[in-house]
Amino acid sequence: MKKAILEKLREKSGSFVSGEELSRTAGVTRSAIWKHIKQLKEEGYDIESISRRGYQLKGEPDTLDAKALEIEIKAKKLIKKIIHFDSIDSTNTQAKILAAQGEVEGTVVIAEEQTEGRGRLGRQWLSPKGTGIWMSMILRPEIEPWEAAKITQVAAAAVAIAIRESTGCQAGIKWPNDIIINGKKVCGILTEMSGELNSVNFVVLGIGMNVNVDKEEFPLELQSIAASIKEFAAETASRKEIVVKILSTFEELYEDFVKNKNIARSIDVCRKYSVTLGRQVRIIQRGSAILGEAMDINDEGELIITNDKGEIQKVVSGEVSVRGITDYI
Ligand code: BTN
User: Fold this and answer.
1) Quick check: CB of 202 below 6 Å from ligand 1?
2) Separation between Cα atoms, residue 177 and residue 319, nearest integer Å
């Protein structure tokens, strides 16, 4: 009901829509319309009402609630359902529980706040209320388990494009899963998989983006390496717009990868926006460090480096530090 009213108001944005027209559209009485408009205003929608002229939508809140997102999202081939929490321990944990219970591919779990947000390597992920994008998507790709890491590359490409297009910021990708602006990390990706030796049961793709987190909120040790989009964007960034853009771009690239077995588009984007290629890198793998220069990202999404002995080496995963970026000085 509210969805129909909002859609109508948006369609006629810039002008008034009469109560009569809204009640025809939504199939309810005019007094029911009035009650829904009141609720929408309480939710933060700026709606002007003038007697005999009707209602005009003047502004929308930057909430991530499921209804608002479902209306905006055009990526309907993949995104089947949005589950929004005001507060949750971790959207990845919740998505994994739902996936294990059989929830369909394309279910997105999104929260205003995470109380136990998780980063890679068991780290904590700061997720204060209403200031970031904390979301996880359930995927059931028909791929080999070893290919699941490629989904991180597809997501990194989608996120970089989404930030660039919706905020104008020059987002870069630090292989394999960090999104960087001006040398600072604004977003991380955590891909988790459940499967057998030969088959993927499900993948949970978690994306955490600092959009409006205040600098002082980051723990002291992260203040020099982490940042929020708001520090770099010319205008206030809309979380909703970024989420919608990520999902629609991800859908396109993901379909290409799983249906057409073509990851080239995503890898091209990862190369184009890479902040890793051409730089000195230090990779920590199973406790030991490899030093070298990042040369390329191959079609499998692996990082190709020339190590300090001059040998060419393929890196599939590991903790990567890039000299001059975030934490490798
Ligand atoms: C990293 O860079 O270490 C990855 C961070 C991933 C954080 C996101 S926030 C949404 C989702 N839920 C979690 O608990 N973690 C991921």
Assistant:
1) no
2) 10
Beta-strand runs (E) in the chain? 46-50, 54-59, 81-88, 107-114, 132-139, 172-174, 178-181, 184-195, 200-210, 280-285, 288-297, 303-307, 312-315, 319-322
Closest CA to ligand 1's atom 8: 208
Which letter does DSSP use for residue 191 in this model?
E
pLDDT at site 3: 81
Query: What pTM was estimated for this model as a whole?
Result: 0.86
> Long-range contacts made by residues 122-126, C-beta under 8 angstroms, separation at least 24?
125/188, 125/190, 125/208, 126/213, 126/217, 126/218, 126/219, 126/222
Taking a C-beta distance cutoff of 8 angstroms, is the pair 174, 321 a contact?
no
Model confidence pLDDT, tens digit, residues 148-206: 999 999 999 999 999 999 999 999 999 999 999 999 999 999 999 999 989 999 999 99
pLDDT at 73: 83
Where the chain has pLDDT below 70, the residues are 75, 324-329
Could you tell me the distance, in angstroms and rounded to a whole number, from the CA of residue 133 to the centre of ligand 1? 10
The Cα–Cα gap between 51 and 42 comes to: 20
At residue 75, the pLDDT reads 65
Q: Is 132 in the pocket of ligand 1 (CB under 6 A)?
A: no
Q: Which mutation among 85, 92, 123, 243 tests ligand 1's pocket best, with the greatest number of atoms within 8 A of CB?
A: 92
Instruction: Kindly report, residue by residue over 92-112, the tens digit of the pLDDT.
Output: 999 999 999 999 999 999 999
d(CA 56, CA 76): 28
Q: Tell me the C-alpha distance between 66 and 247, whole Å.
A: 14
- Both tokens of 107, joined, read 């279910």
Ligand 1: centre distance to CA 127 (Å) = 9
- Residue 212 to residue 229: CA distance in whole angstroms: 7
Residue 214 has a pLDDT of 92
